[in-house]
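Table 4 source record.
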Amino acid sequence: MASSATTETDFSVLPELEGDIYTAPLQKPAHLGDDWVEPQQADYGQADHAIWDELFERQMGVLPGRAATAFMRGLEKLDLARGGVPEFDRLSAELDGMTGWSVIPVPMLIPDHVFFWHLANRRFPAGNFIRTRETFDYIQEPDVFHDVFGHVPMLTDPVFADYMQEYGRAGWKAMRYNRLKALGALYWYTVEFGLIEEADGIKAYGAGILSGPTEARFAVEAQSPNRIMLNVDRVMRTDYVISDLQPTYFVIESFDDLFRQTVERDFDRLYRSLAPAFTYANSAVIDVDNVVHRGTQEYLLRGGRGSGADPV
């Protein structure tokens, strides 16, 4: 995401796909424009608000001491404990005054190129629905709780907010080089499942960790997973797990460290050196790693979630 990437695409309008650039073949609902933004936020009912409140209360029982300081401060700044699903207009007005970001409602996962464009313009697309009682503990597609509770508080941090914008701008370069999988791994291991080294220990800042009680404990405390200091070249060559706990987490020293390692990196050169497929397994520890904790991988070896194995 070197700065040269920011001058190649005009993000004032949604850029057109060029050549053989690939984007996920999702079916756009007929009532939406090319930006995939819903005309308004969903009208949540009493039962929906109750689900949000219960999810919020559950997470606040496990996150203190495990969540990054920036995240906990963001929760307070945005007053997400006010009750029920937050209004996006309120969040956007408050975020705009802090870091220039806003929150926009989208119906589902949206195409890569549209997602990148919104991030590049400091807009965070949030799912316009909330999970049901039947999917209370786990939902495969991100809902409003994952997106707003898990992601939005981090957008109150100025450095992380800038990182997210640069990630969006970098997406178009990855598409041109056909390296979306590699850039996706970087998002996965930072924005979704990132850890940060703080004075009193390692904490979580990734939304995939922060929005679920099991992974919040597992990522920070369990003996099973590896915890390795972030190396961008290595991370972008590393496979990841979509529907289970991660065998490996990557740790940053600070958000300034994350910004330096990514935005100041020559990605043209990196993309030319990357293989089309991942090089490293998600549980691998290699000779260049700065290992904070070498995991036992017991959870993975016992078969993970499908086997009923307990996180260890």
